[in-house]
Automatic annotation (TrEMBL):
<dbReference type="Pfam" id="PF00059">
    <property type="entry name" value="Lectin_C"/>
</dbReference>
<dbReference type="InterPro" id="IPR050111">
    <property type="entry name" value="C-type_lectin/snaclec_domain"/>
</dbReference>
<dbReference type="InterPro" id="IPR016186">
    <property type="entry name" value="C-type_lectin-like/link_sf"/>
</dbReference>
<keyword id="KW-1015">Disulfide bond</keyword>
<feature type="domain" description="C-type lectin">
    <location>
        <begin position="196"/>
        <end position="319"/>
    </location>
</feature>
<dbReference type="InterPro" id="IPR016187">
    <property type="entry name" value="CTDL_fold"/>
</dbReference>
<feature type="domain" description="C-type lectin">
    <location>
        <begin position="66"/>
        <end position="171"/>
    </location>
</feature>
<dbReference type="InterPro" id="IPR018378">
    <property type="entry name" value="C-type_lectin_CS"/>
</dbReference>
<dbReference type="InterPro" id="IPR001304">
    <property type="entry name" value="C-type_lectin-like"/>
</dbReference>
<protein>
    <recommendedName>
        <fullName>C-type lectin domain-containing protein</fullName>
    </recommendedName>
</protein>
Length: 343
């Protein structure tokens, strides 16, 4: 409930032309609009498009990937590898494919990777409940190795080896409510804006190898952190201090974290993931070993740059711009939806 002082009551403002009433109404209107934008049900990333009939957000990933990598990227984006679980979702998946490439065949979330022949969606919907039909001569389970299901632009299914690569669609149902992190343009509340650099940072406590860490940051709309100044080094030092080794659970090295630099092409040419030499990037306090076989970059708790095994699994730090990808709530009027960008 919003309580308005008596002096700004409706009766008072109707019977007077006091300037304070006009100001009060303008401020109240702005407050209510701001409140709606930040509390409305169904906020999600602005790089997804919402479909009212399917009651979900969708995003086509055109770069082909294996089924396992597709599942992982969708999950890291806060979504799910899409499956045609309803006629409305099936219709929207077909629409997305046909507007991009009529010859598309995409991976769905339907799989039998846990038990051979037992097909379910990632969310647990059994195959018998899927409102789609098989393509001609499908399924054939060639060589008894086809445990993942694809969908073509006609809405037909086929089985395929999960290690093959295909485009895919990530989706998030409206029922997955999320709070907008308006400071960082995301629904991930673990990102925190630091005003010293005007960047958002997240410390990942789940260890991954360098490639997986790179993927996780990218999927969240950012990248592995790059230190561009002594000030930013201090920011990361302060961030690490919030996660002392005693609070990290698991059997892995807790005294360091991957950030965004590595030895390019195995030549020991140490550069950031954006191609800059460390000195040009703005910070080069380094303890990288000459001729080391460890080609990926990490920082210790004293913020010295060091080398680490790329396949080793340790925590990592992501950074992102505060305005990307942005969060968008849903507004419906006469059955039509609009997406409003919230920053």
């Amino acid at each position: 409930m919003i309580i308005i002082p008596y002096i700004y009551s409706q009766k008072y403002c109707i019977t007077t032309f006091h300037l304070s009433c006009y100001k009060m109404k303008s401020k109240l209107k702005y407050f209510l609009w701001f409140f709606i934008l930040n509390t409305i049900e169904g906020t999600f990333r602005c790089d997804y498009k919402y479909n009212a009939k399917a009651q979900a957000w969708f995003k086509l990933i055109v770069m082909p990937a294996t089924w396992f990598d597709a599942r992982l990227r969708c999950s890291l984006e806060g979504a799910v590898l899409a499956s045609p679980t309803t006629p409305e979702i099936l219709a929207e998946m077909k629409n997305i494919m046909n507007h991009s490439n009529a010859e598309f065949e995409i991976f769905t979330g339907i799989h039998a990777t846990i038990s051979q022949g037992d097909f379910y969606t990632i969310e647990g919907t059994p195959f018998s409940n899927i409102p789609a039909t098989w393509a001609v001569n499908e399924p054939d389970n060639k060589n008894n190795e086809e445990n993942c299901i694809t969908l073509n632009g006609k809405g037909e299914l086929a089985d395929l080896q999960c290690k093959q690569t295909r485009p895919y669609i990530c989706y998030r149902p409206k029922t997955f409510e999320a709070e907008a992190n308006k400071d960082c343009g995301t629904v991930d509340l673990e990102y925190q804006l630091d005003k010293r650099t005007n960047k958002c940072y997240k410390f990942h406590t789940t260890p991954r190898n360098f490639s997986q860490a790179y993927l996780a940051c990218s999927a969240e709309g950012g990248h592995l952190a790059i230190i561009n100044s002594d000030t930013e080094a201090t920011v990361l030092k302060d961030l690490l201090e919030k996660y002392p080794e005693s609070k990290l659970e698991g059997n892995f090295r807790k005294d360091r974290a991957f950030i965004g630099f590595h030895a390019w092409n195995g030549s020991w040419d140490w550069r950031t993931i954006h191609g800059q030499k460390l000195m040009d990037a703005g910070y080069s306090r380094s303890e990288v070993s000459p001729g080391t076989v460890r080609a990926c970059g990490a920082i210790d708790r004293h913020i010295s740059l060091g080398d680490w095994w790329c396949e080793g699994t340790i925590p990592f730090i992501c950074e992102k711009a505060p305005d990307f990808p942005g969060t968008c709530p849903i507004f419906s009027e006469n059955g039509q939806k609009e997406s409003i960008h919230v920053m």
